[in-house]
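Subject: complex prediction, re-run

Hi both,

The earlier run crashed halfway through, so I resubmitted it with identical inputs.
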Amino acid sequence: MKPRFIALCLMGALCLAGTVLCTACSSLGVKPWQRDLLSRRDMQPGGSRLDDAIDEHMYFSKEASSGGRSFGGGGCGCN
Amino acid sequence: MQLESGGVNLRGKLIAASCALLGSAPVAHAQTHDVVDTINRALADWQLDGAVAYYHENGRIQAVEPVINAGHELANGGQLDFNFTFDALSGSSPNGALTSRQVQTFASPSAKSFAQARHLYTTGSGSLPVDPNYSDARVAGGAGWTVPLSRLMRATLGGKFSYEDDFYSATVSAGLERDFNDKNTTVSVGVNSENDFLQPIGGAPAPRSDYTLFEKGGHETKHGLGVLAGVTQVMSRNWITLANVSVDRFSGYLNDPYKIVSIVDASGSPAGYVYENRPDSRTRRSVYWENRVGWAQGSVTADARYMTDNWGIRSETAELRLRWWLPGRDQYLEPSARWYRQNAADFFHPWIADSAPVPADLSADFRLAAFHALTYGFKYGCKLTDHLGRFGRDTTEFNIRLEYYEQSLRGNPAAPAASSGLDLYPKLQAFLLQVGFSY
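This time it finished cleanly. Structure:
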């Protein structure tokens, strides 16, 4: 699969997500009492911060790309 | 609180009754109970995560990395976060030179000449040139402060530092988050600034200079500035999605001061080496998308990233993680897989011919080559709670994680005739073992 095609797919998905967010926010989401599953740690972005940090450091030192998830990577002379 | 107090009394009675039945001293149990309760109370608003990771590459680097994160919930709804990392690395690091049928001799980075080199190392015929005396240690720490500005808006401030023998780094960051739509939508934006100071062992080599002339200077600096914007949306009771876009720009000394490039003569044999030179600025753009879908027994996390930069590198990453709770919900299994692919930087040259001028920018660093990588991981976690309900937090757990990483070059970069039949670009294989604890 061509990288540009993948990029286009990602951009398309983002545009779709943006459209959904802009036009249908009121129909998305849950009420406060429906957050039982969402409050679990494995359902929260950044819920595995320590694993992510160790992985990010490994990938930062072995690959040309890093970050994207947050302000990760950097601060290391290994790359 | 009444229920908890009642629970404590009940637990005390149960302990006393058990001890009496067993004929052991109840005092010791009561003291243990008090200690546990004291710890629970002292850490009531804290979330602690700690781990030790061991990383091992086939015939190259190995590292031990203890990490600890601490989060403290403030009474005003804010949050303080602290993290600390220590790395100890040792082993063999590729120096960039091309594998050859000839024996090749190199000097340690601290050398001012071959005659005065502290270490000379020799690479045998058909072997990848690596510096076998590589070692480094890193200490890094950081802190973050989340400040509620209103019921729906928060500001975040952060800073981190990193120290190595030859590298110092300081980063500051600031961000804003705003909730919408009954807190089902969160929009965030942040900036960070990183300042690095490099003091390579033996001095920073003059870019593109002849390796045998030891033209080395003093220290160098680089500076980075990044912006990240993201949207998190609760889609349904069991689905949350997150999308980020980010841009960052680094400028200054972006070379690896320990990497060289082989010069090959007409016969294909090494005729010399020059130090690498990369462009003095780099701008990266990335798009990241993450989805989490959960149900009673587990959850799936799927994320993808596309990144591109002005060095000609494009990369795609996809990652999938499944968490599966075993019956009783006190143990889980978490298999994961990651796929990564990048193409080569415009200035990646695994070697250059002595008949042509040395390019303005060049590097033989494998990390700038075209390759793909796969990671397979498996994690096991179990909640640490006893039958008396102590360590009664949902987040208290022990976990162990094993990952296997494999990196293979894509395509077949041109090889000198004299090197045909040699494995010029050996596969990188590594594994990571991590033991962790959360409270």
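The mean pLDDT of chain B is 90.

- K.
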